[in-house]
Design goal:
Beta Polymerase, domain 2, disordered N terminus, single chain, binds 2'-deoxycytidine-5'-triphosphate, globular, 5-stranded mixed sheet, alpha+beta, binds magnesium ion, 3-stranded antiparallel sheet
Length: 386
C-alpha cells in the first residue's frame, strides 16, 4: 500500500566538502558568519580540533542551496555537531547567539585577533604577548620586544594590510605581476589563485601561481621577478623561500599536508591609488611614471597603499596540483586530502598525488584529472568556497 509520498529532506548534502558545490557567500550568511567567529576563536586558542568542527559546520551551511528557516530543516544533515546545532538553533530562534556575542566581545579574542592581524605574527607569538598583558599595538610598540623583519613591516602597514583587498586592486596587481613576469621570462604564465580565483570580491591578499610551459625554465625565476619588482619600486617588503621538494620512492618524504615547498615569495606591494588595471597597464610601459607618481601627495595623504601579495613558482609538471592547492579554500583542500587518504588510500599535496596501493604517483595536467583520479565529481573554483 502506498501512502503520501514522503517529502524528501529539505537539503541533501554530502559529508566531505570536496563533494559539494559551495558558492560564496552562500544563502546562510547569518549562520556561517557566526560559526566562523567560533571557529576563529578556537583556532586562536590553539584548539585545532574544535576549530575544524566549526569550520565543517560553516562549510556545510554555505553549500546549502537555500536559506535555513528552522531547526527542523537541519535534520539528517552531516557535519553538524551538537555544539554547532545549539548555536544555529539559537540564531534561528533569537536572531543572535549569546555565545557568539560573548566571544566577539571577550578581551582575549579581541587582543588575539588584533595581534595575529599583524603580518608575520602567528597564534603562538600572539598568545605569548597576550599572556604578558599586551592587548594593543601601542603596548606592543612600547614592550621592548624585538620584532623580526616581517613583523616590523606588518606593524608599519597594519592599517593597510587589514583593509580588505578589492577585486579591482587584485586586477591591478595582476597587471603589475604579469608585466614583470613577462619582461623577465617571456612565455611564462601567471595565474590568479586563492580567494579571487574562487570568485570572491575581496580578500586579505592576492595569490599568484607562476609557471612556464617548458619544464626547468622556471628555475631561478622567483629571484628575477623580485629583482625586477624592486628595481621598479613596487615592493615594500619581501621574503623568498627556496624549493626543496623532490619526489621519492614509495611516496616517502612527501611534504606534510599543510606545507608546500615551492619557490615562494611573501611580499607587500606598493599599489598606487590610481592603479586601475588600465592605468597599471600603461604604467608598465613606462615604469618611471609609477615612481614619479608615488612621490606625489594624493588627496587622502599617501598616494599609494600596501597590499599583501604571495607569489608561488611551480614547475609545469606540478602545476595542476599547485593550482588546486593554491585555489583553496583551506577547508576544501583539507577535505580533499582527507577524502584522498580515507576513501582512496592516496595522498594529495600541492605537488603530487600518490597512490599507496599502486605505490606510484598519478600524473595530472589539469585539475579535472586530479578530481577524476580521486573519483570525485569536478568542482569548479567558484564552488570551492567551503
Ligand atoms: N594555502 C596552502 N598552504 C598554505 C597557505 C595557503 O595550501 N600554507 C592555500 C589554501 C588557500 C590558498 O592557498 O586557499 C590561498 O591562501 P590564502 O591564505 O590567501 O587564502 P584565501 O586566498 O583563500 O583567502 P583570502 O581571500 O583571505 O586571501
Ligand atoms: Mg588569498
Amino acid at each position: 500500500q502506498q501512502g503520501d509520498p514522503v517529502e524528501a529532506p529539505a537539503f541533501l548534502a554530502a559529508s566531505y566538502a570536496c563533494q559539494r558545490n559551495t558558492p560564496h557567500p552562500g544563502h546562510n550568511i547569518l549562520l556561517t558568519a557566526a560559526l566562523s567567529v567560533l571557529a576563529e576563536s578556537a583556532e586562536l586558542n590553539g584548539d585545532e580540533g574544535r576549530g575544524l568542527a566549526f569550520r565543517r559546520s560553516e562549510g556545510l551551511l554555505r553549500s546549502l542551496d537555500r536559506r535555513v528557516q528552522g531547526p527542523a530543516e537541519l535534520r539528517g544533515l552531516p557535519c553538524l555537531g551538537d555544539h554547532s546545532r545549539r548555536v544555529i538553533q539559537d540564531l534561528l530562534e533569537n536572531g543572535v547567539s549569546s555565545e557568539v556575542e560573548e566571544t566577539k566581545s571577550s578581551p582575549r579574542y579581541k587582543a588575539m585577533k588584533l595581534l595575529t592581524g599583524i603580518f608575520g605574527v602567528g597564534v603562538k607569538t600572539a598568545k605569548r604577548w597576550f599572556t604578558e598583558g599586551i592587548c594593543s599595538l601601542a603596548q606592543l610598540e612600547t614592550s621592548g620586544h624585538s620584532l623580526n623583519a616581517a613583523q616590523q613591516a606588518g606593524l608599519k602597514y597594519y592599517t593597510d594590510l587589514n583593509q580588505p583587498v578589492s577585486r579591482e586592486e587584485a586586477d591591478a596587481v595582476s597587471v603589475m605581476v604579469e608585466g614583470v613576469v613577462h619582461s623577465v621570462l617571456p612565455g611564462a604564465r601567471v595565474t590568479l589563485a586563492g580567494g579571487f580565483r574562487r570568485g570572491k570580491m575581496s580578500g586579505h591578499d592576492v595569490d599568484f601561481l607562476i609557471t612556464h610551459p617548458d619544464e626547468g625554465k622556471e628555475e631561478g625565476l622567483i629571484h628575477k621577478i623580485i629583482a625586477c619588482l624592486e628595481s621598479r619600486g613596487l615592493l615594500l617588503y619581501q621574503q623568498t623561500t627556496r624549493n626543496t621538494y623532490r619526489e621519492s620512492a614509495k611516496g616517502a618524504g612527501r611534504p606534510s599536508s599543510s606545507m608546500d615547498r615551492f619557490d615562494r615569495c611573501f611580499s607587500i606591494f606598493k599599489l598606487t591609488n590610481d592603479s586601475s588595471p588600465e592605468d597599471t597597464r600603461r604604467a608598465q610601459q613606462d615604469p618611471e611614471r609609477v615612481r614619479v607618481e608615488a612621490d606625489q601627495t594624493g588627496s587622502g595623504g599617501r598616494p599609494w597603499r600596501a597590499v599583501r601579495v604571495d607569489l608561488v613558482v611551480s614547475p609545469i609538471s606540478q602545476f595542476a596540483f599547485a593550482l588546486l592547492g593554491w585555489t583553496g579554500s583551506k577547508l576544501f583542500e583539507r577535505e580533499m586530502r582527507r577524502w584522498a587518504v580515507r576513501e582512496r588510500a592516496m595522498s594529495l599535496s600541492s605537488h603530487a598525488l600518490y597512490d599507496r596501493n599502486q605505490e606510484r604517483y598519478l600524473r595530472a595536467s589539469s585539475e579535472e584529472e586530479i578530481f577524476a583520479h580521486l573519483g570525485l565529481e569536478y568542482v569548479s573554483p567558484t564552488g570551492r568556497n567551503a
